[in-house]
Amino acid sequence: MKISVVGTGYVGLVSGTCFSETGVDVVCVDVNEEKINLLNSGEIPIYEPGLKDIFTRNVEKNRLSFTTSLKDSLIDTEVIFIAVGTPPDEDGSADLKYVLGVAREIGRNMNKYLVVVTKSTVPVGTSKKVKAAIAEELKTRNVSIPFDVASNPEFLKEGSAVDDFLKPDRIVVGVETAKAEKTLRRLYKPFLMNGHPILFMNILSSEMTKYAANSMLATKISFMNDIANLCELVGADVDMVRKGIGSDARIGNKFIYPGTGYGGSCFPKDVQALVRTADEYGHSLDILKAVESVNYRQKEILIKKIKKHFGENLKGLRFAMWGLAFKPKTDDMREAPSLVIIENLLKEGASVVAYDPVAQEEAHRILGDNISYAKDEYDACLDADALIIVTEWSEFRSPNFRVIEKLMKSNTIFDGRNIYDPEEMRELKFNYYSIGRAAVL
Ligand code: NAD
Fold first, then answer.
1. Which parts of the sequence belong to the UDP-glucose/GDP-mannose dehydrogenase C-terminal domain (predicted)?
2. Which of 14, 215, 231, 264 could form a disulfide linkage to 326, CB 3.0–4.6 angstroms apart?
């Protein structure tokens, strides 16, 4: 079997590489020439644990290749995945120009039956637009070539994308024909070995499933953040509350950790897009509107705590920041809470020296020299008035506090991820602020 994957970002590159691992021939396509050249020279443009090994193995076996020509990729291809970006439009709805652009290009270049699968996260009804765009191009060419459209939203998580793709909790596929279902079942069969289900459904339900899943996860985060803030006010400890509620199987103990708000390339834009879709249908998704506003507020929670400690005037203060990426094990900075915190600190005349194990290059691309970058976590602490922890990389969990103490001007930590035990911080004589727990002073 041969397939094409259009878009070599986190989703396209991981999907293409993992499909090739099952013996399928995969051609990955991207308009970004620089990315394709890099991939053709054996380099990977993103940080994703485990990807490099599988990538190298399959490139060497000639099962995985890269091109800027969608037309060339179509030779002998049975299935083509659209995995390009769907960034938010100005009004928050998903911008479909890349997805539909690819659909038109497929229509202009296909010469035999194809299953066209949308893997990008797209609003309900997009597959109909993909189908119409392809049909229109075929009509312009005055040819009649059969094709099927399908929806196959992706649930991988950055940081564990390879594992998630190889061992998915479930695979969701929306189809219109038995032929498309048969082809996609065959393609996904190797991933179903551990009893993970493949759920076939109609296309509208499949498209909706992705948004409902991400919105539910974002809701859990905002709920827990709001509860954490209330815990602080009433004198409760959110860690205890989290364990207390998480042991109820109906609630579950996953994804109920408070923090500095959700970021990344998916939750913020997908929640926004679903709210917009609902609005279009005259339905107000009030729950998700609240989820969004709680999240905006939460991204500034550490600034509030910093001002409580230092006073309103932060001018001239120097902050060490540990973690820049929106979560550990990724270099993705899209919508990262660190950006909001940095923007606020710089606006107030403070300076920031940051360290992130893998996201510094990406941060520099976005922030330039507005902040300084440290060579390691200790280097960041030199002469700092306080340390801010934004991303819970595991290497930050057990640092040498005695070294930190010597490097910093004052023993003050603002922990946005609750990675330390307040009692231990008290014994170490640190001022310690965390989320949903009493400050240690
Ligand atoms: P990304 O921005 O990392 O990559 C998108 C790629 O598409 C880029 O390399 C870009 O150059 C390429 N592209 C754009 N237009 C193109 C065209 N006409 N032809 C060929 N290539 C083109 O995006 P991503 O994070 O991989 O996300 C892709 C989609 O998957 C989005 O809809 C996203 O919401 C969804 N998704 C992302 C994740 C995630 O964790 N990143 C998880 C699940 C779903």
1. 320-422
2. 264
